[in-house]
Amino acid sequence: MNYxxxxxxxxxxxxxxxxxxxxxLGVDCVIIIDMAGNIITAKDNGESKYxxxxxxxxxxxxxxxxxxxxxxxxxxxxSLLFHKGQESNIHFSKIDDELLLISMFGRDISLGFLRLNxxxxxxxIRAIWHKK
Amino acid sequence: MSFINLKDKxxxxxxxxxxxxxxxxxxxxxxxxxxxxxxxxxxxxxxxTHGDRTLFFDFLPFDMGQIKGYDIKIQLYTVPGQVKYNxxxxxxxxxxxxxxxxxxxxxxxREKNIRSLNQLHENLQSYKxxxxxxxxxxxxxxxxxxxxxxxxxxxxxxDKDLNSRLKVPYFEAxxxxxxxxxxxxxxxxxxxVISIQKKLL
Lengths: 132, 201
Fold this sequence. Notes:
The structure holds two protein chains of two kinds.
Chain A (H helix, E strand, L loop, with lengths): L3 E3 L1 H16 L5 E6 L4 E6 L7 H21 L7 E5 L4 E6 L4 E7 L5 H19 L3
Antiparallel strand pairs in A: 2-3, 2-6, 4-5, 5-6
Chain B lengths: L2 E3 L4 E9 L6 H11 L9 E4 L5 E14 L2 E9 L7 H8 L4 E7 L5 H16 L10 E6 L13 H9 L6 E3 L8 H20 L1
């Protein structure tokens, strides 16, 4: 069994990237989870009050379900998932086989702009994560 | 795979209640949710069908306090018990740290318990885990039914059927009245935490 341990330094670097690239952009809340539903880190704009633990469990289940559906239709994966609401939206993106990046954002950010930044964030996080 | 956050000093432990359909997995969680309301930071999440059967999982997180300066966050999950939902059962088992196998003590459920335990064994293998190594506790549930004249299996029979090779701790219980629900939970938490500690040393 592999145990997920990240160093304090790595987490601080990851938190820094999330704040700089996503929270400053206007994203309400960003969570990195593993596929078992554990929270690796969570950052928010100080105003949002989500129950991140329940959220992580549901998000991991949701993503795993979509992944299983992808396999049924012969796809390797659906690496991107997006839910649109009236006031808030949720964007899921796979970092690697173990990690998932979830961004919750309101109406004032365009999906395209968010996606550009997410791609950038994911590359940076991968570099830090694989250093361990 | 429990996740250990060295920055915030948090350890997340995933415990799954497994067992055949209608054996009382969700009832265990509901009892814990009612009884330990003060320690539980959020609402219990249940993904169920219109007929109140678990569709995907139930989820209940709570804080257990600190060990050596680390906050221990316990995350309880159940799996859907119905035979047809094995794909989702497998998904819930991903990254599990400890398992409570809830067996239904009713006589007519004897075979279903054994089948469910065998499937747990197979499902764990698909994650390269072994049922003989992972922290596991047996719970022989519904013993209160004896008082209502419903035939139930003696604990020795259940133990022989399910636990003769595993030899893990077991409890007679009644999830609906709460009898031994907390004892089961305490046992699986301590086994899981000890196993995580051992692997880290």
